[in-house]
Amino acid sequence: MNQPERQRRRTKAATIADVAELAGVSPMTVSRVVNDEPGVRLQTRDKVVAALAALDYLSHPATRRPSDVDPIRIGMVFNHANVGYLTDFMIGLLNKASLRQVQLDVQRCELREDEEATVQAMIAGGIHGLILPPPFCDSEPLLKKLAEHGVLAVAVSSGRPSDSSNAIGIDDQRAAYEMTRHLLSLGHQRLGFILGDKQQHCSERRLAGFRSALRDAGLDPATMGALAQGDFSYRSGLDAAEALLAAPQRPTAIFASNDDMAAATVAIAHRMGLDMPGDLAVVGFDDAPLATTIWPELTTVRQPITAMAGAAVELLVRHIRARRAGKPLPREHVLMPFELVRRQSDAAPRSRPRLGAVA
To answer: 335 - beta bridge partners?
Structure first.
């Protein structure tokens, strides 16, 4: 297409044929994606969503169904504490927002610093609902402010969701329990655990699962489960791993409350010359992109972050439309499935000296 043709294309409303051409698919496929019909491969759907956004197709009144005439404005606040989690979260959020004709207002702010002022400005700007990923999902002042203003909210990945908001997450305690049982089944009995941010309820739930698994195996958590405090950041994972591995009876396996801290533990183990997983097994939580970019690749708990973000959009839109129709829905707390993903960072504890080791 030459430049004059591109210019003319920009000055008129995009058609379904324009979207199909840009995405390299048929108009029928575009129609199926716009109407959220099944049977379209994820890779193809992503291409169509990108083309819809590039051509601003869904903003044209002619493409709207009658129930979508009034726009829905959804806000989200975030910070940079966990880049891997945020990346997956934004993919799910943007994909569903594009298909549901939702206007997004995404703002960065710091927890307990400017969160209330940021959200107050978003409320004044006319948002109809707010999605709260970690760490904001557990902010009581924020949830209280939203309730006072009658703004619907969905807390994502809160270990202890508030009754005042909708929530989507996994069973953090059960997931941590199953991962700990996995390590015990390999023969590990001296385990270390790195806690996450004290302000996030999912951290305490994961610790509860860890301790419960030890007790059910007949082990005393006070003596067989060494703890170190982190805050879900890579930096905190370095400090926590150093503390655990400096102990006279160092653990043979370390379970970190997220993949960032697990990756930091792997880095410390490499620096100490430990063989992994022979000398030390390391497992994480989330299955963030980082889990497969380090060596050895992490065994971890996979929570469906992208799917949870998309489900949060769906849930919020459904509640907003029900409220507009004068039929508000009861609060929903949705649990989504998790999965234990085993890779190269865990194995049975070494039962013989390392090759070349001096007795």
So the answer is: 169
